[in-house]
Amino acid sequence: MAVITAEGISKRYIIDHKRGKKSSSIKDALSDQFGKIFKGKKTQELEHIEHEEFWALRDVNFSIEQGDRIGIVGHNGAGKSTLLKVLSKITEPTSGRIHIRGRIASLLEVGTGFHPELTGRENIFLNGAILGMTREEIRKQFDAIVDFGGIEKFLDTPVKRYSSGMYVRLGFAIAAHLDPEILIIDEVLAVGDAEFQKKSLGKMRDVSATGRTILFVSHNMTAVQALCNKSLYFERGQLIEQGETNQVIASYMSKVSKTKLLREWSTPEEAPGNDLVRIKKIEIVPEYVDGQLFIDVRTPFRIRFEYWNLMDRANLNLSLHLNSMTGECIFNVGSLSQPYSKGIIAGECLVPGHFLNDGTYNVSMMIVKDTVTPLYNMEEGLIFDVADYREGVAWYGKWPGYVRPQLSFHTEMIEENILND
Q: Which residue ranges does the record assign to the ABC transporter domain (predicted)?
């Protein structure tokens, strides 16, 4: 049964741009300003306002079934949060229709739905009333909300004195415990600490297990994959793809990733860095298999680097991070710390074949002094893709994990026909 249906949803905003009236000379400009101050000229006479149409959503169509856990992914500005506001009836669509079956609880921005002058206790009852709950229904869930939010000590403090983390914990606890049929959660969960995020994802799984529907916006693809069975991919206000989560995320990541195997700078003046060190070059050098021109799971490659040391004498080492595009660190390795004088320092790290799984990765490099003091950190210095390759395997689903090593692994029969005895 469909609980949310969107038919041709579009949302348009009008953006005003102020343009100053052009003056033909300094004299004219000064005259305009003095006229504005002393003669009471209206601002409109000095400024020209231009109107620009911005479509946050364009002709969006989808249907969500009861019990679905929907991830919504896309770049910043893709229309994700606007869609949630339309679904939550915070804003009206410019055109199109939305059919919703059931009660919605939304957690869209820090502090949304709270009255800052009221205490945490009072806001729990206020939010419950907004959701249509009776006072008795709220009382039944009250202790669970306070416990989950971890705000017992501040329960009778006005929420305007809460930190952003406390706001989020209380807001999520209210939204998840007051039994809405549809739960809408924006990226706001990123404000919480790791323990709270883990607890929140677990609670959302529990909520969905009872047949309720969840819409979850996040830039953390790991969280989306862990929670959501289906996903919607938005780009520039348009719904690009919808379907099974792993397939949608693979499509999204393939569009956002940009393979770049070499970055190089000719002089220290133009290179990234600071007065102590400057990056000269960072590159990935693959040892391609069978003459191919792309990296796959079999391909060994070297990460090579060069940098200018601008100090007379310093003990330096380089720390390399290989990260997934969803932000997890796959590994971190460091070179030995050695004394260097001024000049160009070079080195390389070998990553063997049959080690990484297919996917998109980035390399970050950090130059460190005395093994403890970071001098410069180049984040996402290189981005590259590892393609899939399988031989003798008939299964073509997504291979799990970030690493895919070839390890010594064998099986053998140690006794025959034991079931016939």
A: 41-261
Q: What is the pLDDT of residue 43?
A: 47
**Is the pLDDT reported for residue 374 higher than 60?**
yes
Cβ burial 228-263 (10 Å sphere, 16+ → b, else e): bebbbbbbebbbbbbeebeebbbebbeeebeebeee
Q: If you count DSSP H runs as helices and E runs as strands, how many of each does the chain have, helices first?
A: 9, 18
Reported as a single tens digit per residue, the pLDDT across 189-205 is 665 566 777 777 778 87
pLDDT of the residue at 23:
47
In-domain check, residue 362: yes
User: How far apart are alpha carbons 104 and 94 in whole angstroms?
Assistant: 21
pLDDT-above-90 percentage for the chain: 35
* CA nearest to 68, candidates 233, 241, 231, 250: 231
Verify that 250 and 269 share a domain, yes or no: no
Domain range spanning residue 45? 8-54
Give all strands (DSSP E) within 113-269, no chain letters.
182-185, 213-217, 230-235, 238-244, 262-264
Structural contact between residues 21 and 46, judged by C-beta atoms closer than 8 angstroms: yes
Are 27 and 63 members of one domain?
no
What value does the mean pLDDT take over residues 145-167? 85
Q: In sequence order, what E strands does 329-392 have?
A: 329-334, 338-340, 343-351, 359-369, 373-386
Q: pTM here?
A: 0.56
User: Distance between CA atoms of 1 and 355, rounded to whole angstroms?
Assistant: 44
